[in-house]
Task: structure prediction
Amino acid sequence: MTQHPPHPNGADAIRVLLVDDHSAFRQALGLMFSLEPDIEVVGQARTVADARTVIDAVPGVDVAVLDLDLPDGFGLDLIHVLQAAHPAAQVLVLTASAGRSILARVVEAGAAGMLHKSVDIEEIVSSVRQLAFGSWLLSPSELAALLREARTEGAQRRARTERLGRLTPRERDVLALLGEGLSDKEIGARLRIGKDTVHTHMVNLLGKLGAESRLEALIVAVRHDLVSIDRESERHP
Amino acid sequence: MLSADPCSQPILLANEPLAYRQALVRAFRAARPHLHVLEVAPDELDAAVQEHAPLLVICDRLTQLVERCVSAWVVLYPDGARQVTSSLAGHQERADDLDLAALLAFVDRAGAPFAR
Result:
């Protein structure tokens, strides 16, 4: 059996909290961790609400393994709750989402690392050990670059949100109907206004959104849930 | 149905993502050490079904061969959705989640005729 050094928390084992809505996986991962001599699963939760209860109830957490997409909220929202209750706790995000912008948001929220669910299970175990012993999963330069990206993206997001806030209710209606694929004439018929009026609203809303085209305006609107183009969005990142 | 020696019929796990599959394989081996548990990549599922005639298949995408030839299967979290569909001897059930104890109970029911 592999010998592991005593954990700096003074406990016999690394205390792990698991938060994932896929119970069969989470509990299998928990069982697997419990077979490791130096790891103890102190709590599990399926939802953000359950996790808040567990975080309050457990005496200590060294590493929390968090999924992002939970039935009642976003896993990242738990980080400040966790770190308020257990300041030394490290967070490893385990997600089916990929991409550098997600990683930047994860790091900005205070997580120490992110792994995709397609990784080998051994990588999850070794990452938990690394984090528990104070090692980083990201290099300082990578971390700095990600934080810069998160800051830039955050500023852009805020600017877009501010621009969307300038739209009048009628301009929002026009944008929503544009998202349904309607022409100016059809939008006019639906809203009982003339085609020229639709055109005026369109020009105004493009200007307010800083969009060069209707497509660009639509993309901005979709990103901010002003327009839905996919009703089957019950997917897991 | 494919025929094979029931005592050697495995449980095939072919679900994505990889971490799910590997965690379940380890959990099954720990909780049901008498069972023959095989891990295969999803694109090798049909070939593995033909070779091993499994008692049970766990996957995230059902193939026609599995649906037609395997009496017990579970489609677990297809495309990451909160959805589980199980089928045992033609009786299907759907849920938005399944805990490990329920999955193991399903495995026990699927393997009950041949339990050693």
About this structure: Chain B touches chain A through 26 residues (CB under 8 Å). The longest helix of chain B spans residues 18-31.
